[in-house]
């Protein structure tokens, strides 16, 4: 899946990844050099750092950012409160880290990027990406004042959110390929209405009570320490990674009615939830009679640690024994 995303970004960003200028006085004569500025075309690598005002940063961006620009780094600045890169439509990589006074990032003109990383921004309040369509990776980490992250046009990409997060709203209405990774948040709900291929990873979001991914067909799911009561993945057919759902103390139901194929590199762990015996029985029946496990699968299934204890009963015991006869190790209460 990562190859698919990366290939899409390569195609979309090709116009901004042309050759450097003729080797000469790097950045001195203003016309050539491996990181010189070709008039109207920009530098390949742009660095914004140190004590700098908004006006000075805007002037540097106007002079140095252009069609030849592939990488922009904004690090360790002071005085800079607003970073305006809204004129940029396509670039390979942007890194924004450790800027003491930065409160606003405007990337509203950006449509395609391979990697966008923003981190350790203690005063940052907003990141605007209203027109971003595709990205290999978007990372937002340790930005404690950012409460809302909206990507209304994103169709391809992986969104990673982590560290000191106060996020209460995440908007991804058009995302179809890629996924979401969240390590800690105040989200109460997450809706991925069009996601068909990708992954959903959520950990440490104890306020999360609703997760919707109704079209997810091929992918992986990792959900830990939430307040979900039920998990319904009605279209999931192929598991190409982990199905790890554990330590969700309110979770009483997991529905995967169309899962038929589990790849060799996958894992299944559904422990330490509150699944009753009736749900354990249904899962065991699915694993035994409906789901095909690829050669090389670990043949280990974890269902133990439910609250209260939920051992298999009746047909569940029969299905468990059938799995054991096939070489599986099944751990349950």
Describe this structure in words.
The protein is mainly β and 333 residues long. It folds into two domains: 95 residues, no CATH class; 157 residues, no CATH class. The chain is 14% helix and 36% strand. Helix 3 packs parallel to helix 4. The longest helix has 13 residues. About 8% of the residues have low confidence.
Write the layout of secondary structure elements.
Blueprint lengths: L1 H12 L31 E7 L2 H11 L6 E8 L3 E3 L5 E8 L6 E3 L5 E8 L6 E3 L5 E8 L6 E3 L5 E7 L6 E3 L5 E7 L5 E3 L5 E9 L4 E3 L5 E9 L3 E3 L5 E9 L6 E3 L5 E2 L4 E3 L7 H13 L2 E2 L6 E3 L12 H11 L3 E3 L2
Parallel strand pairs: 1-2, 2-4, 3-5, 4-6, 5-7, 6-8, 8-10, 9-11, 10-12, 12-14, 13-15, 14-16, 16-18, 17-19, 18-20, 18-21, 20-22, 21-23, 23-24
Helix pairs in contact: 3-4
Q: How many strands in all?
A: 24
Mean pLDDT: 90
Shape label: elongated
> Quaternary arrangement of the chains shown?
single chain
- For the CA atoms, what is the radius of gyration? 24 Å
Structural class: mainly beta
Between the first and last Cα atoms, what is the distance in angstroms?
A: 36 Å
Helix % is 10-25%
Q: What is the domain tally?
A: 2
- The number of helical elements comes to 4
The percentage of residues in β strands lies in 35-45%
Order of helices and strands: HEHEEEEEEEEEEEEEEEEEEEEHEEHE
Q: Outline the biggest β-sheet.
A: 15 strands, parallel
Low-confidence stretches: 9-34
Signal peptide: 1-19
Keywords: Signal
Protein name: Receptor L domain-containing protein
């Amino acid at each position: 899946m990562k190859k698919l995303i990366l290939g899409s970004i390569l195609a979309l960003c090709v116009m901004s990844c042309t050759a450097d200028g003729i080797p000469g006085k790097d950045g001195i004569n203003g016309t050539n050099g491996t990181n010189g500025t070709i008039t109207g075309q920009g530098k390949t690598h742009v660095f914004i750092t140190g004590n700098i005002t908004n006006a000075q940063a805007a002037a540097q961006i106007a002079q140095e950012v252009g069609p030849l620009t592939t990488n922009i780094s904004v690090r360790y600045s002071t005085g800079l409160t607003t970073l305006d890169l809204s004129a940029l439509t396509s670039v390979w990589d942007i890194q924004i880290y450790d800027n003491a006074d930065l409160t606003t990032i405007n990337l509203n003109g950006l449509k395609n990027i391979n990697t966008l990383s923003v981190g350790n921004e203690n005063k940052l309040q907003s990141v605007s990406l209203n027109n971003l369509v595709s990205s290999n990776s978007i990372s937002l980490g340790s930005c404690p004042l950012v409460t809302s992250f909206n990507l209304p046009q994103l169709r391809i990409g992986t969104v990673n959110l982590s560290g000191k997060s106060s996020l209460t709203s995440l908007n991804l209405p058009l995302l179809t390929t890629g996924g979401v990774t969240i390590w800690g948040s105040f989200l109460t709900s997450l809706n991925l209405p069009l996601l068909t291929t990708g992954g959903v990873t959520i950990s440490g979001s104890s306020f999360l009570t609703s997760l919707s991914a109704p079209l997810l067909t091929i992918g992986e799911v990792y959900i830990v320490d939430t307040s979900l009561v039920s998990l319904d993945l009605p279209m999931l057919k192929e598991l190409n990674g982990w199905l790890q759902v554990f330590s969700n103390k309110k979770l009483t139901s997991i529905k995967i009615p169309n899962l038929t194929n589990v790849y060799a590199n996958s894992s299944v762990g559904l422990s330490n939830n509150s699944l009753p015996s009736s749900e354990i029985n249904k899962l065991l029946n699915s694993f035994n009679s409906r789901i095909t496990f690829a050669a090389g699968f670990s043949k280990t299934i974890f269902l133990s640690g439910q609250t209260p204890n939920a051992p298999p009963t009746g047909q569940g015991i029969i299905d468990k024994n059938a799995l054991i006869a096939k070489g599986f190790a099944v751990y349950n209460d």
